[in-house]
Design brief:
The structure is a single chain. The chain has 412 residues and is an all-alpha fold. It has one domain. 69% of the residues lie in helices and 1% in strands. The protein contains 18 helices and 2 strands. It is globular and about 60 Å long. 35% of the residues are buried.
Length: 412
């Protein structure tokens, strides 16, 4: 194959890897688009992804991936768990399989892992992909903030100013910004990366966007994971960390936005369940859902608003303020059962134990960060693109013998 043919093939693969997330994200839920049309496109794409998985299984590629991969079997088991939960939704709630599929189409976004394998995308192109989506997020975030309080991405409640600044809630691809932050953090701190000034710029902008989410768990998890990484890499950073902490603390004390976050946290613990909805979600969920061996193991599935199961879920939201998407592990257990908790725990343990090169370190840090924020908000599937990118890179690093990753299509 000639060089031009190789570049064309590379561009086509990248175009596929860009198009799939955008459709699965329903074109960022832009209010100017027909939501029924974008929903239908996402549903159809999910069906195609499932069909694609079946095809590579028939061709034997799936077995090959499983034999050479640290995470392929775990991803497959998680997908199998999703299918079993769909059966439970029908068996215990009478919700049709098609409705459950429509309600939980986003769960099949993790098939992206096998799409990455099929395209054999390189490390450099993965980084380009992450930076591309981060840049798109930056532009959309700036536009959304400029239009606040009018909502331009998502539902009517996707913008809030109760934390001292316009909070853009759930704008898709923010997880790629988090990943870009960890990539730039490692490149800046490694001391031997090229284009360091560029990466410093990426680090600063991505960190500002992280703070701009005004999400307490995300900010704390970012500081925690970054601090542990820097101190383990270079203990001399401790002095810098102390100085930054003192300066940041002084700023936070007198900052209106930070004050709003502190007040919100204080009220959460002062007034209990009346203001801390997660206390209800974590302590009373067992009273809401029937317990039996099937739902204990594989969950209740995802509810659709057009079914009795979905009506019951809406009742819980309105009368008891239970929202499984905000309930972290509780939401996972209710939807997919204890098996899902076990599978994701195995993934975490395997990632923590895996020895990685500098190339793969940001992706390891991101997975640890992802598990921390999932303690309060269920993001494994919502952030499925970045999650699967990380597992793919960690797989590639494992196969390389921790010697570094293939940086382009021209590397042998």
């Amino acid at each position: 194959m000639s060089g031009s043919d190789t570049r064309s093939s590379q561009l086509i693969k990248l175009l596929i890897l860009i198009t799939v997330p955008i459709i699965m994200w329903r074109f960022y839920w832009y209010v100017g688009f027909d939501q029924k049309a974008t929903s239908l496109m996402s549903f159809i794409l999910s069906a195609f992804l499932v069909a694609y998985l079946f095809v590579i299984w028939v061709n034997g590629n799936l077995r090959y991936y499983s034999e050479v991969s640290l995470y392929s079997r775990l991803v497959l088991l998680i997908l199998f768990n999703v299918f079993l939960s769909m059966i439970n939704a029908y068996a215990y709630w009478g919700q049709g399989i098609v409705l459950t599929f429509r309600a939980g189409y986003i769960f099949f976004i993790i098939i992206y892992f096998f799409l990455l394998y099929s395209t054999d995308v390189s490390y450099d192109d993965i980084v380009r992909l992450v930076l591309f989506f981060s840049f798109v997020y930056l532009l959309l975030w700036l536009y959304a903030v400029s239009q606040s309080p009018q909502v331009v991405f998502g539902n009517y409640d996707e913008v809030s100013d109760d934390r001292g600044f316009a909070r853009i809630i759930n704008l898709s691809s923010v997880d790629l910004v988090y990943l870009a932050y960890f990539i730039s953090l490692v490149k800046v701190s490694s001391g031997n990366s090229e284009n360091k000034l560029v990466w410093i710029g990426v680090l600063v902008v991505s960190l500002l966007l992280i703070i701009g989410t005004l999400t307490r768990t995300v900010i704390v998890a970012t500081i925690l994971v970054s601090g542990i990484y820097l101190l383990r890499r270079r203990p001399g950073y401790l002095i810098i960390a102390v100085i930054v902490t003192i300066v940041a603390s002084g700023y936070l004390v007198y900052n209106e936005v930070a004050s709003s976050l502190f007040d919100l946290t204080y009220e959460t613990f002062e007034f209990g369940p009346e203001s801390a909805l997660r206390i209800v979600e974590y302590t009373q969920f067992a009273d809401f859902y029937p317990f039996n061996i099937g739902t204990f193991l594989f969950g209740n599935g995802s509810p659709h608003v057009e079914s009795d199961y979905g009506a019951f879920e809406e009742f819980l939201k309105s009368d008891y303020f239970f929202n499984r998407s905000d309930a972290g592990p509780v939401g996972m257990y209710v939807t997919f059962g204890i098996v899902s908790i076990v599978l994701f725990t195995i993934v975490l343990i395997r990632v923590i134990k895996q020895k990685v090169s500098d190339d793969a370190m940001p992706f390891k840090l991101f997975v640890i960060f992802l598990f921390i924020i999932n303690l309060t908000s269920w993001k494994f599937f919502k952030f499925g693109i970045s999650f699967m990118i990380c597992l793919y890179i960690l797989d590639m690093d494992h196969k390389s013998g921790y010697l570094g990753l293939r940086h382009s299509y021209y590397d042998d």
